[in-house]
Amino acid sequence: MILPKTFAAKPPHPTAAIGIFGGTFDPVHFGHLRPALELLEQLPLTEIRFIPCRHPPHRQAPMASPGQRLAMLELAIAEEPRFTVDDRELARSGPSYMVDTLASLRAEQGNGPLCLILGTDAFRGLPQWHRWAELMELAHLLVMKRPGEPLPQEGELKHFLESRCIYDPAQLAQQPRGLIFPLEVTQLAISATRIRSLIGAGRSARYLLPDAVWDDIRKKRLYSAPLFMPEQ
Ligand code: ATP
């Protein structure tokens, strides 16, 4: 007998996870987008959720406003339905602690697997994050190898890597949290810092980020010396 869909037996484990990509995205660029697409293709992820932070606790305040960064992200992801933007950190006052963000996502997702996406630079800085060890009680960590940024070879992170590192991505969907999966993604030596300084110096950032984002930056004169208005 074929059961209707609603009565079909559920699999013992959830089969897909949600990727959580936090950052300042000041602005979002291909160094974020291309690796995110590769994660979707290689891992059991149904969605990648970009979460721009309002008050980054560990670095200078972003140059573009929360609304401007959100608008650039929405333009950047418009063509990929599995990319979404979540503005919960922008709506929250006080420092944007990732542990609070993951706790609110966990409350919504129940026991569904969550994967926090980090570049190697962000991973190496993890011990400076607020209540950082709790992050792994809430989500897995996906560590994207970033040009010139090796994985930590000593200290607490080395210990976490040794005890939690996995090599089979299927495991990410079989348990909700607590594993670390480092992976190679296309190495794009692009940073938002470099983009801001190019624009500030009156140079073009075209081809480092989506055209729609570049057009938005020029239209709103973000990051720029006031005289920079080429490329009509
Ligand atoms: P900035 O230069 O202002 O520090 P950024 O380019 O590092 O910005 P963020 O928004 O701070 O961008 O980064 C969000 C996340 O994306 C971080 O985990 C960071 O490690 C990762 N990331 C940024 N650029 C790349 C890249 N080119 N390759 C891999 N990961 C990246």
Describe this structure in words.
Its EC number is 2.7.7.18. It comes from Nitrosococcus wardiae. Belongs to the NadD family. With 232 residues, this protein is of the alpha/beta class. The chain has one domain (17-189): HUPs (Rossmann fold, 3-Layer(aba) Sandwich). It is built from 10 helices and 6 strands. The protein has helices spanning 30-42, 66-77, 88-91, 98-109, 120-124, 135-138, 155-164, 171-174, 192-200, 211-220; strands spanning 17-23, 45-52, 83-85, 114-119, 140-144, 180-183. Strands 3-2-1-4-5-6 form a 6-stranded parallel beta sheet, with helices on both faces. Strand 1 (17-23), helix 1 and strand 2 form a beta-alpha-beta unit. Helix 2 (66-77) runs antiparallel to helix 10 (211-220). The radius of gyration is 19 Å and the shape is globular. The relative contact order is 0.18. The model is unreliable at 1-13 (pLDDT under 50). Adenosine-5'-triphosphate binds at residues 23-26, 31-32, 35, 118-119, 121-122, 144, 146, 188, 190-193. Adenosine-5'-triphosphate (ATP) is lined by residues 23-26, 31-32, 35, 118-119, 121-122, 144, 146, 188, 190-193.
